[in-house]
Amino acid sequence: MTRIPELIVFDLDYTLWPFWVDTHVTPPFKKDPKTGNISDRHGQNIKPYPEVPKMLKHLHDNNYTLAVASRTGEIEGANSLLQLLDWDKYFKYKEIYPGDKTRHFSRFQKDSGLPYEDMLFFDDENRNIVSVSALGVTCILVQNGMSMAELEKGLKRFVNKHK
Ligand SMILES: [Mg+2]
């Protein structure tokens, strides 16, 4: 029987969006009610990686449970962006605060009751891949942000690991 991940976890900076929310953009963020465009305090336009909205909707429509794990210190800004992007509906769990990501995953484990082996994780930083892999989570190092191709790669890796 093919096993699929019971929980798919995404990093934020350089995984779902192409910037560090604590450095490259400046809160508060706002959304133009007419155009839906999101901008920061200086009017800089804010966009996720192009395929990410489609990818999240695809996973949500296929009943995957999704989560966010970020080490950013800009907790309020990150949460505000998730809300403005209208992504809160996709993420059942959110752990956003500095520190080793094993801490974030320990919370996912407790809150979901799922074993680490049932989780799939995407992140652009090798230090997070190393520490979270050690828990038994299937981890994918993302090179140029999330895309449908990157997602497929991760899902395949998960299936092959659990054969
Ligand atoms: Mg990152």
Automatic annotation (TrEMBL):
The keyword Magnesium applies. It comes from Laodelphax striatellus (Small brown planthopper). InterPro entries: HAD-like_sf, HAD_sf, HAD_SF_ppase_IIIC, MDP-1_euk, MDP_1_eu_arc. It catalyses: O-phospho-L-tyrosyl-[protein] + H2O = L-tyrosyl-[protein] + phosphate. Gene3D superfamilies: HAD superfamily/HAD-like. SUPFAM superfamilies: HAD-like. GO terms for molecular function: acid phosphatase activity; metal ion binding; protein tyrosine phosphatase activity. Keywords: Hydrolase, Magnesium, Metal-binding, Protein phosphatase. Signal peptide: none annotated. Its cofactor is Mg(2+). Pfam families: Acid_PPase (PF12689). This is Magnesium-dependent phosphatase 1. It is an enzyme of class 3 (hydrolase). Its EC number is 3.1.3.48. Magnesium-dependent phosphatase which may act as a tyrosine phosphatase.
